[in-house]
Amino acid sequence: MSIKRVLRILLKDFSVGPRKPFFIWALIMPFALTLLFQFAFGSLFEPKPRVGIVDLGDSAVTGAVQELEGFEVSILRDVDDLVNRVEQHDLDAGLVLTAGFDNAVRAGEKPMLEFYISGESLASNRIIIGVTAIEMIRDLEGSEPPVDVQMVYFGKPGLPISIRLVPVIVFYALVMAGIWVPSASLVEEKEKGTLTALLVTSVRVNEVLAAKWLLGFLFAVFLAAVTLLLNQAFGPRPLEVMAVIIIAAALTSMIGLLIGIYSKTATMLFTLIKSLGIFLFIPVVFYLFPEWPQWVAKLFPLYWIISPIWEVSVMGEPLGSVWFEMLIAVAITLALIPFLLLLKKRMLA
Amino acid sequence: MRKTVSHSELLLAILRKDIRVYSRNMIYLFLTVLGLVFFIAIFWLVPDTVDEEITFAISPPLATLISEGKESLQAHGVPAQLLDQFDEFETAFEEEGFVLVEFENEELLIKAVSGELEIYRTDQGRFIIYDPDGDQQAPADAGKVSLDIGMSFPSSFFSDAVLGQQSTVTVFADAAVPEEIRGAMQGLIREMAFQLAGHELPVELPDEEMIILGQDRLGDQISMRARMRPLIAFFIMMMETFALASLISNEVLQRTVTALLVTPMRIWHFLMAKTLFGTALAMGQAVIILIFVRAFTVANWPLLLVIVLLGSLLFTAVAMLVGAAGKDFIGQLMFSLLFIIPLMIPSFAVLFPGSAASWVRILPSYPIVRLLYDVTIHGSLWSDSITLIIYAVIWALVLYGAGLFVLKRKVAAL
Predict the structure, then answer these.
(1) Model pTM?
(2) Domain boundaries in chain B?
(3) Is B152's pLDDT higher than 90?
(4) Does any CB of chain B come closer than 8 Å to the CB of residue A105?
């Protein structure tokens, strides 16, 4: 095998790649998913109580509510707009602070609280918002509570959904780049006849396959790293994260190469990726639902790469804590080589 | 000898050919069946309930806390009739949205919150404490309750608060409990103490009827499963864009349409056949899905069929636009996504609480998604839907006109 020829084929793939739709989609997908998951679905899975305030008198309550954690606060100018938004359930609750509200509370005048709750708001959100609003007003009144509340916590703080979704986005980066790119590139060469043309030159089939594997590998490493960076999930050990990504990319590119060798047409490739996709995706779902029995995820091959990425990048664990998972990932990659050789023979035949 | 072929015969011939080609395309046939099974399975797997309650524990039990408070205050000379107001605290915890689990002592409460003990709730609302490390089996016919927060009151809490003495309440919580719930629980305890100490609310609260805006869905929230019902009908129609676009792409790429044009077939026959085939394919599947997710009712079925027909026509039009480009399989797939992704946005918008952003409402698929949502979830009928139907018809016709124009030009240019 000539490394020079492998690199030439790889260079050719990289130079024509940006014009290929599968290449562009592989590049766009992780960015699009990051945007979608971080900004849209984050609020779908863990909705926070949404409160709107119309402050007609520069009340201290407004500032206090804005500083609260766990609420989405919108400051509005118009009462009708607030009422309309609460009615449409764009807000869970709305609070109108009239001019002189603070002074009236401090003076013990018991002003009427203009407060609205959306009919579609959850019972729990109604309680949370109601109790919090009363507490803010009590603070304004200045009276000391006749009780001392002490908090005692158990366990570790839960991870926000935006972080729990990181394995999904990294999975897509690895699959789109590691599986889709080398397989689609190889199938396209087969369909257009350029593979046959290449093989009548001094280029050997192993060199083509090595170049395709490298194409997927380098692209997968790059996209997985960029995805983690975008999601601020590189953790305290970036070099160790890179080591895990390299092993993950090696495995996904090997799967991609196998699919590419097996598929005769783009239609077949698409069917295979679609069908296998569900099987490959299953371990990722277990990160979204930590209450599910986690041992089931271990039955699926990509668990052994998603788990180390999760542990080292998101949880900040050292590389040594995932050596077993990484060993299994390497073993799976190596175990696929005999299949690769078999399928290569079939492809050449 | 020439036999005149009628328009309907020509159309039927093209339709038969399209059905044959479609049934031979294993990928789309496979994806169609997979899609139907997958969406129906997802629908029935998604939870049909909405958890809108805050479950928390207290120790000692509320009744014990109140009776001990009363005894202590009576011992301090407070008249018994003044202490009857304490009973109102029990009803406060029965408010909708609260689930209260009572423990005899703090030790049990800590074990339950830290997960050493598990709590199960029977259908009758009784709570069972279960020790997973013990010999007993987990209670059957009872659901596990997630207990993340607990409050341990001193037995003198009521009397201390009334007599103006500072007491300490310890709140035990799982660190994963959201900040807003922890804050609300602390606020609740402080407010209880304020009320007991005779500090009235510093504001007047309006009547509940005045403050609830819109339909009050307390205890009757829209579940994720109900929200999925319109979505999956929409997705299945959308997925047919890929199949029809591929069919048209192949005809354009392989020039079969030019071969057909030497027969009595005219371009409009071809366009009409594609319209009929694409619309029927998408509509047929959407109707199957809607039957399996039990969306049809005696009152809404004609309206739902009209909505699905409009949606199917819309996606057929998109398929014509995509297919006219005559790209290869991968190219056509990627090109389809350029159209499909923006059209998908309104479907996600309905998953979120509240109304869709103004820019989402402009998208051609918005009226279809909104109509499916309103009819299957809110039970809207013709009179409530007429504006959106007109909006959907306009978009379907605009896109269909564009699809016909582009495809006709493409076929004529081949």
Answers:
(1) 0.72
(2) 7-47+222-413, 54-211
(3) yes
(4) yes
